[in-house]
Amino acid sequence: GQSCYDPDTNAEVVNDWTCSCHLPSEGYAIAKAADCLIKECLISCPSCAGTTCSDQNQTCFDPDESSLSLSDWLCSCPMPYMGMSSTSSIARCSIDECAVDCPTCDTGKLCEGAGQEC
Fold first, then answer.
1. Nearest to 67, CA basis, from 34, 19, 18
2. Does the bond joining 78 to the residue before it have cis omega, within 30 degrees of 0?
3. Each residue of 39-58: pLDDT tens digit?
4. Are 36 and 48 in contact, with CB atoms under 8 Å apart?
């Protein structure tokens, strides 16, 4: 929802009214309805997007922050892991130790160093 506020109700002063979105959405406009956004990834609570992803060391992504598009957030895996969640859930992260170059993934380098494919 939104709240309207008219700072000057004098009949000669027009188009100075504002609309502000109610929490947890954000938005503000002058002389028109506000575009309300809900940043689901920034809301922290036990079952909220940001907490759900960060508790798994994953990054939260909300493809549509409009207040009409809720529960469409996704979690993605940190590098060098791969994986993206389905809507409103944690990602199933995997790693191809032969394909990645990272400090803890020596498998591919060891094989290549011995003239072998991983």
1. 34
2. no
3. 899 887 777 888 999 999 99
4. no
Shortest CA distance to 85 belongs to which of 72, 71, 98, 75? 75
User: Which tens digit of pLDDT belongs to each residue from 82-91?
Assistant: 888 888 889 9
Q: What is the pTM of this model?
A: 0.66
Of 87, 26, 24, 23, the closest CA to residue 53 belongs to 87
Among residues 20, 49, 50, 17, the alpha carbon closest in space to that of 37 is found at 20
Provide DSSP, 5-73. E-S---TT--S--EEEEPTTSB-EEESS----B--GGG--STTSHHHHHHTTT-EEE-S--BTT--S--
